[in-house]
Amino acid sequence: MAEVEKGAEYWRWTESRWTNPEMDWKDGEVVSAGVDVGSVSTQAAVMVDGKLYCYSSMRTGSNSPESANNAMKWALEGTGLTIDDLHATVGTGYGRVNVPFAAKAITEIACHARGGNFMYGPGVRTILDMGGQDCKAIHCDERGKVKAFLMNDKCAAGTGRGMEVFADLLGVHINDVGEMSLQVEEEPPPVSSTCVVFAKSEASGLLRQGWPKEKVLAAYCSAMAHRVVTLLERIGVEPEFAITGGIAKNPGVTNRLADELGVKLAKTDMDTQIAGALGAALFARALYLKKIKGKK
Amino acid sequence: MIANYGYKDGSGDFFISIDTDRCDGCGDCVEACPADIFEMVEDEFDIEAENDVAAVTSEHAKKLKYSCGPCKPASGFEKAELPCIRACGPDAIGHSW
Ligand code: SF4
Ligand code: SF4
């Protein structure tokens, strides 16, 4: 059996915050913000004149308004900005209507397309958002406008939540799951079900048979990748292809996904978890500029 | 914009698609569907849009095969004769199965 330390929180992914060291918001004109309240994680992103200034990414708490407030406060920490300084804020994600300081709520599909376009560049045509609780495939144009989408929220397969359960089961920290799963010499057959409950008992069985952890992880990551590939068949994959959301940081899944699809993954040095919040901040900026123009 | 609602599982593909560029917001599908699958929502994809568009409720998106079951008997059916498709003048609704 795998050695699992009692009380250790293997599922706990790293919360983070960041401020652009080269920018000063006081030099800017329009400060816009986006908050993405998901079922598992919440992100807040602040842009100054359309450039990313600061962000935070943390676990969603017990209620949406509080999670939105906390994420925004953390993002603004140390910047001297307060929520009152934001010219416009848009809420998105599952809890989007519950962002207290947002002027408008916009669906996460539109925000991920817009944020993905910003993050990966205008060449991106297919965006796969692999979030905490669901999985969305989006086609967009060069401006990040949605052309078609497909959402799967039927089960936790292919989602961050599923991965958390797995990390805990194997006693491997969630940040290491991807790399570790790539350390197999030969790809094992994928586990037969990605349904978290079944996959869990299947994995326990494999561990008992003496499979090393990396092999079990490889079998799970490839099952997850395969499951998403079958979902993508419905709308097709047009290059460039980019992945957003937490799972985008797991090369065990993304590399296998790209291999199976026969495509290259677009690259970014930004945090893929903030795509939704980033898109929301871009919409907030557009709405604010429209309002100003209307007044003149 | 084509919105696909539904899922894929071992028994097949169950998706309803709505072309939001064609949908004129009349709401006739909401009235016509015996299973209350549709709802009218703000067109959040086009911030310039003036009219609402039809969407599949998230509750039904997870079980479309069953929700549409009565309209789609195993003995066979014509897609063009489904109440939702008949109701939609601009031809904005599509079914994958
Ligand atoms: S097939 Fe019947 S139940 Fe299904 S959406 Fe159309 S009208 Fe509603
Ligand atoms: S009947 Fe057609 S046009 Fe009217 S709301 Fe439904 S989908 Fe839109």
Short description:
Chain A is an alpha/beta fold and about 300 residues long. In chain A, about 35% of the residues lie in helices and about 20% in strands.
Describe the protein's topology.
The complex is a heterodimer of chains A (296) and B (97).
Chain A: E1 16-19, E2 31-37, E3 41-48, E4 51-59, H1 64-76, E5 88-92, E6 104-105, H2 108-120, E7 126-130, E8 135-140, E9 146-152, H3 160-170, H4 177-181, H5 196-208, H6 213-232, E10 241-244, H7 251-261, H8 275-295
Parallel strand pairs in A: 2-5, 5-6, 7-10
Antiparallel strand pairs in A: 1-4, 2-3, 3-4, 7-8, 8-9
Chain B: E1 2-9, E2 12-19, H1 28-32, E3 38-41, E4 53-56, H2 58-61, H3 64-67, H4 83-87, E5 93-95
The complex binds iron/sulfur cluster (2 copies).
Strand order of the largest sheet of chain B: 1-2-5
The total of helices of chain A stands at 8
- General form of chain B: globular
Average predicted local confidence, pLDDT of chain A? 88
Helix content of chain B: 10-25%
- What is the CATH-assigned architecture of the largest domain in chain A? 2-Layer Sandwich
Share of residues in helices of chain A:
25-40%
Number of domains of chain A: 2
Percent in strands of chain B = 25-35%
CATH topology of the largest domain in chain A: Nucleotidyltransferase, domain 5
Q: Structural class of the helix and strand makeup of chain B?
A: alpha+beta
- From the N-terminal CA to the C-terminal CA of chain A, the straight-line distance is 69 Å
Instruction: Supply the CATH architecture of chain B.
Output: 2-Layer Sandwich
Low-confidence stretches of chain B: none
Spell out the key features of this protein.
heterodimer; A: 296 residues; alpha/beta; Nucleotidyltransferase, domain 5; 2 domains; six-stranded mixed beta sheet; four-stranded mixed beta sheet; 8 helices; 10 strands; B: 97 residues; alpha+beta; Alpha-Beta Plaits; three-stranded antiparallel beta sheet; binds iron/sulfur cluster
